[in-house]
Amino acid sequence: MKHSSFFWFVLPSTVLMLLFIAMPIVSVVTQSFYTAHEQVILEVENCGPFGCTQETSVDQEATAALREAEPLGKFAGFDIYTDRNHLAFGEVAAAWVKSDGLPDFGSSLMNLPFYKALGFTLTYTAIVTPLTIVLGFIVAIAVNAVAKSLRGPTIFFSLLPMIVTPLVGSLILFWMVDARGILGTGLQWLADDPNLSVKASTGLMWIMLMVYGVWHAAPFAFVVFYAGLQTVNTDTLESAMVDGATRWERIRYVVVPHLMPLVTFVALIQLMDNFRVFEPIISFQASAHATSLSYAIFNDLGGETRLLSSAAATSVLTIIGIGILLSPVLVRTWRDFNR
Amino acid sequence: MSSIATKQTPTVKILANGFLIMWLIVAAFPFLWTLWGSFKVEGDFFSKANWANALFGTLTQSETGGSFTGAGYYGAWVQEEFWRAVMNTTIVCVCVVTISLTFGTLGGYALARSTYRYAFWFLLFALMFRAMPPITLVSGYLLPFFEWNLWGRLSTTIIVLVALNQPFTLWMLHSFFKNIPQDLDESAMVDGCTRFQAFRHVIIPVMWPGVITTGLFSFLLAYNDFAVTSMLLSKENQTMIPKIASFLGTTQTKGNVMFAVSAVVSATAPLFVMVMFFQRQIVSGLTAGAVKG
């Protein structure tokens, strides 16, 4: 394809992506170095019959005018990154000096908002991704083993948790595990504790969020693996059988290696998606127990005072996190292409 | 295609079937339960006395006289004007799907046919953009949008969603176009067509399966989005998902959780229908990226 026709064909997408993905990244990075103007303080001397008093008041008009003139705010350098709500160098150093032992240091880290969010996001990603792959694989093997006529309906119902809007799907689960809902009652009965409530316990809340994550993502892994299973070479399976391989050994040494490239693909997509975990925290109203990086940004942006700079700094840190997470994949793609 | 290797012993069959039944219950039961419960009163949906009340609607019977009630739906759709959100969602979804497919087919086609190195870099950048959580970009939108008075409008949100959709659309259509033999458009060009004419008369007629599949996923992205729509739309322009989220904030205190429940069921219904009709396309779309590498 000629350069010029390539250019015209990709122009609309390129313009859109530059304007609404690349430019916002620049804008986020810039914003994260600025902080909102402080309020303009007026000092007025009131002189009465009993002497003069100094009074300070906020000059609303001047503040508004200043903020209007320079909406970005004033330059703050790396101050926002190092403040208590983000990397909190000061607090971390103090906690390191004060703490006795790593567990103690860890628990004081979890009191800092950024590390709390990062801790949950990483734990969620690290636990949900492998579980999703394993569950999806087992479901795919099982579906492959049942009669052909049953496969259609099975796939239909299996797709539902993935297709349904994350916010809606997690709400549905949340209502069921409510202390007055069916699963909540079931849990209370199992634990023999009538006061058990998922909403009140940090541990249970983390588990519920991860259960939701696996429930939501497993269908994707299942569908991909199921498609892969259709292409497994039956000759190889048969010869393995002739050689005396048991059913388990056939799965272990023939099917799993065949599916390995798909596992990498699913893992890559899942890493990206799990790192941005967000909606379930809103639905589960879990922010007291678990916050994620995305939730921290959302929280800064919402509400009366939009903390743009704080949100921007968290965004930049999140993007860096994604970059670190994906760097092995990018390097590999690049190498594959060059080969 | 039955071979010895695919034959199973009865134990394996029972195990497989038993596991599948369990998985199906886990996957589908929550939806059925919520659908059933949405026709009850709150006292039954969240039953302090006995969970089985949600099944039989004991309180619904004593409060409304019947064992089913549409009060939740009436409250959400009429009283809280959920229909307005449904209209907005429809507008957003139709526009996003149309625009992203138009731009995506053009770009995807060019990426599939170009043999130069920059096409690869283009796709790699698109992949990186795909990895970006949308909420991180939202903090970059807000200030300029406020400044230029673009905030709160449906059109702004549509364009933003189309842009966020592009990386994925390009990747998917790129792999679909790779499967259309190159001889097809090249022979048209030998016959004197320009590149665009070849695309218009030869490729467009055969591209629909791939485009429909990609369109389904664009639709899902627009329909399911919460991060962008909740931050960029003003209250009267809200789409369904942020509207449901706003029910949670206000109605739980008023004791009108049932509004949210019926809104949730209403928002799930179109997806249900979609999966029913397009199951094959969804499955092929999910696997397209994976199997072809």
UniProtKB/TrEMBL annotation, chain A:
It is a multi-pass membrane protein. One of its GO terms (cellular component) is plasma membrane. The chain crosses the membrane at residues 6-29, 117-143, 155-177, 204-229, 251-269, 310-331. Keywords: Cell membrane, Membrane, Transmembrane, Transmembrane helix, Transport. It is found in: Cell membrane. It holds the Pfam family BPD_transp_1. The keyword Transmembrane helix applies. It comes from the Bacteria. Its main location: membrane. Residues 118-326 form the ABC transmembrane type-1 domain. The keyword Membrane applies. One of its GO terms (biological process) is transmembrane transport. Coiled coil: none annotated. Belongs to the binding-protein-dependent transport system permease family. PANTHER family: BLL4140 PROTEIN. This is Carbohydrate ABC transporter membrane protein 1 (CUT1 family).
TrEMBL record, chain B:
It comes from the Bacteria. The chain crosses the membrane at residues 12-36, 85-111, 118-142, 154-177, 198-223, 257-278. Its main location: membrane. Pfam families: BPD_transp_1. InterPro entries: BP-dep_ABC_trans_perm, MetI-like, MetI-like_sf. Residues 86-276 form the ABC transmembrane type-1 domain. It is a multi-pass membrane protein. GO terms for biological process: transmembrane transport. Keywords: Cell membrane, Membrane, Transmembrane, Transmembrane helix, Transport. SUPFAM superfamilies: MetI-like (SSF161098). GO terms for cellular component: plasma membrane. It is found in: Cell membrane. Belongs to the binding-protein-dependent transport system permease family. This is Carbohydrate ABC transporter membrane protein 2 (CUT1 family). The lineage of its organism: Bacteria, Pseudomonadati, Pseudomonadota, Alphaproteobacteria, Rhodobacterales.
